[in-house]
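Here comes an entry:

___
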Amino acid sequence: MDTQPTTHDLMNEAREWLQYARGVTQLLAELVHETDAVECTRMALALDAIGAMTQRGMRCAAEAHARMQAVEVTALRASQLPRSGARMPAAAGSPASQLPQSL
């Protein structure tokens, strides 16, 4: 059973993590505006959490992008392969280029 997430799954996960990070950022901004004193330890923990969520989201997006690129490269290479029965031209000077073309 293949448990690898699909590109679609990775993009959804990236979106979710980035939305979590945005939500926590907005919450912190509201708290800072409403309070007279900021607890530095709690603020540092929250900022670390935002960093971790953002990093996870970006990692998922990068993996999805790499997979999409791999699919495009594979498709491009497949489109450049010779058709069945077609002969690829031999490189000039190679032993194959010395053979008669009627073979």
Summary: Residues 14 and 57 are 4 Å apart (CA to CA). The helical segments are 7-34, 40-80.
